[in-house]
Amino acid sequence: MITLSTIIYFAWFLSEILLQRILRGKATDDKKQQDKGSLAVMWIVIIVFINIASIVAAKTNYPIVPGPLMNRIGLSVILLGMILRFVAIMQLGRLFTVNVTIRKDHHIKKTGLYSILRHPSYTGSLLSFLGFGLSVNNWLGLVIAFVPVFVVFVYRMNIEEKVLTAQFGEEYTTYMKHTSRLIPWIY
Question: Is this prediction's pTM over 0.70?
Answer without folding.
Answer: yes
